[in-house]
Amino acid sequence: MVCVCNATYCDMLDPLVLPPLGSYIKYESSKAGKRLEQSEGKFQRRLCAPDVVLTLDTTQRFQRVKGFGGSVTDAAAINILSLPEKAQDHLLRSYFSEEGLEYNLVRLPMASCDFSLHAYTYDDVPYDYKLAHFRLRDEDTKLKASAGREQSQSLHPLLQIPVLHRALAMSKRPLSLYASPWTSPTWMKTSESYVGKGTLKGQAGDRFHKTWANYFIRFLDEYAKHNLTFWAVTAENEPTAGLINNYPFQCLGFTAEQQRDFIARDLGPALANSSHRHVQLIILDDNRLHLPHWAKVVLEDEEAARYVHGIGIHWYLDFIGPIQDTVLPTHELFPDYFILATEACIGAHFWERDVILGCWDRGNQYSHSILTNLNHYVAGWTDWNLALDLEGGPNWVKNYVDSPIIVDSSEGIFYKQPMFYHMGHFSKFIPEGSQRVGLVASKESKQTDLEYTAFLRPDGAVVVVVLNR
């Protein structure tokens, strides 16, 4: 089952109002068709012993939450802006407003990725070490950022009010933007290609590495001109991808040692000495399989560690990297660095179909991942594309995947999938600054399929999320 939205109709939620003392509000979604359906009740003094009792212990305190959200890729922006303007508004409200999921994290590719129409960077002029030719592309100024009135007049009317500014305008919560590069300009790479196996030429501290570090600063400078400031950058999207022969789309290879040295000698100092010194730096941004090794290599080096704030993880190889062997020891070794899930989507594996409209199990997979991560000290969870088309694109290498919102631009409609509502059970109710607290099940729960977590919100309310698969 999917929910269909267009220019005149879209299902929305009432803004959250906390219940009076002694009462609770329940939001339920189900395979049978409930979608964040609201009901209220009062706490009972007597317990008519059910099978499972969950006991809350707010004296047990764990990690604080950074938030939840998704990614504004070129593909996501193209799909959103392909709709009639009122439908665009409904889609963005569904994610960012009080009547929607109240996302507060937005990830942006720094230039192109596979979910672009073509490969490009912001400075494809060879050996431009001064980055004199650095410029944002149409994909940024016409889709993601504000283009200014004069420029926007010449564009297609749908592109006049770009995505990020509209999301910011309708969001009551502060949005935290973070950016990740897929590839450097080809003239900086050993492969001299956007794709395939390749690293930066030379070594940390040289002009290639200094120029690449300055490229981050220029990106932040250019977005700042459009009144968009960033909470964080990741040092590289999936740095191990660029170590793989014939890798099919944009990548830039780093070993853990190369990332450590690049941060210590180039990227860390570049950020610290710029007007963007407040921007946080996230390492890894790759499958958790590489933990705790990657974190040890980078964070046991004092020079690199002083510039780093957090560790980003992707979900694609979770089935061969159990969380208790990867994330948990990393948190125990480096408790002062946050761990954030920075990318996830379904349909990326060859055995998965790209888009399956209305697939409840895919929603379950999202909730299972989020719950597992939250219960192991992860501070938040970022979905991949905010919206894709019926094929699961556009994607210039046809690496199609699924998304919580699927757009059918020919009909001027979009579909909210089960994944969308599963995301909402976390993003809407667990705001930034919430702290995970103890939640223990009675022994009987061993025989159930229940997964659960609990958080104390900054306003003093407690949120319990339970998944029954």
UniProtKB/TrEMBL annotation:
Signal peptide: none
UniProt keyword list: Glycosidase, Hydrolase, Lipid metabolism, Signal, Sphingolipid metabolism
Protein family per UniProt: Belongs to the glycosyl hydrolase 30 family.
PANTHER family assigned: GLUCOSYLCERAMIDASE (PTHR11069), LYSOSOMAL ACID GLUCOSYLCERAMIDASE (PTHR11069:SF23)
Subcellular locations according to the entry: Lysosome membrane
Topological type in the membrane: Peripheral membrane protein
The reaction(s) this protein catalyses: a beta-D-galactosyl-(1<->1')-N-acylsphing-4-enine + cholesterol = cholesteryl 3-beta-D-galactoside + an N-acylsphing-4-enine; beta-D-glucosyl-N-dodecanoylsphing-4-enine + cholesterol = N-dodecanoylsphing-4-enine + cholesteryl 3-beta-D-glucoside; a beta-D-glucosyl-(1<->1')-N-acylsphing-4-enine + H2O = an N-acylsphing-4-enine + D-glucose; beta-D-glucosyl-N-octanoylsphing-4E-enine + cholesterol = N-octanoylsphing-4-enine + cholesteryl 3-beta-D-glucoside
Listed name of the protein: Glucosylceramidase
Residue intervals of the Glycosyl hydrolase family 30 beta sandwich domain: 433-469
Gene: Gba_1
GO cellular component: lysosomal membrane
Every Glycosyl hydrolase family 30 TIM-barrel domain range: 65-430
E.C. numbers: 3.2.1.45
Pathway note: Lipid metabolism; Sphingolipid metabolism; Steroid metabolism; cholesterol metabolism
Top-rank taxon: Eukaryota
InterPro entries cross-referenced by the UniProt entry: GH, GH30_C, Glyco_hydro_30, Glyco_hydro_30_TIM-barrel
GO biological process: autophagy; cholesterol metabolic process; glucosylceramide catabolic process; lysosome organization; negative regulation of macromolecule metabolic process; protein catabolic process; regulation of macroautophagy; regulation of membrane potential
Gene Ontology MF: a single term: beta-glucosidase activity
